[in-house]
Amino acid sequence: MARRMKRRYLLISSEPAHHPERVAEAVKSSYRSLFGELGLASSDLKLIKGYEREGAVILRCALDSLPRAILAAATVTEIDGAEAALRVLAISGTIRGIIRKLARLRSSYT
């Protein structure tokens, strides 16, 4: 019987704010350059939701590739030729959990 793949969700912010799809592509490109095409394919890295105003995205990845996904996000220095810094704000095992953490972060900023 096949086991379901465990996943983790990452809440990532970009400074300055960039389009969510561009942020996700930058992380994927960084992952590919660090760990190769096969590594990227096995990571199951995918954009789940973007918050363009806040410059935040929710990315999904396989549990086994979580440390590599964090490293890939941390090594992004530019998006579309403009300087950028990505920061992993939270990690959760569910989308609901990561959205709760985003709501808590939003309330702490206001």
Using brief descriptors, characterize the structure shown:
flat; alpha+beta; 6 strands; 110 residues; 3 helices; four-stranded antiparallel β-sheet; two-stranded antiparallel sheet
What does this protein structure show overall?
This protein has 110 residues and is an alpha+beta fold. Helix content is 44%, strand content 31%. The chain has a 4-stranded antiparallel sheet with strand order 2-3-1-6, sandwiched between helices. It has a two-stranded antiparallel sheet with strand order 4-5. A hairpin with a 4-residue loop joins strand 2 and strand 3. The radius of gyration is 14 Å and the shape is flat. The model has no long low-confidence stretch (mean pLDDT 93).
Percent of residues in beta strands? 25-35%
Assembly state (oligomeric) = single chain
Main sheet characteristics: 4 strands, antiparallel
Q: What Rg, in angstroms, do the CA atoms define?
A: 14 Å
Q: Considering DSSP H and I runs of 4 or more, what fraction of the residues is helical? A: 40-55%
- What global shape is seen? flat
Structural class assignment: alpha+beta
> What sequence of helices (H) and strands (E) makes up the elements?
EHEEHEEEH
- Tell me the total number of β-strands: 6
For the record, give the distance between the C-alpha atoms at the N and C termini, rounded to a whole number.
48 Å
Mean pLDDT: 93
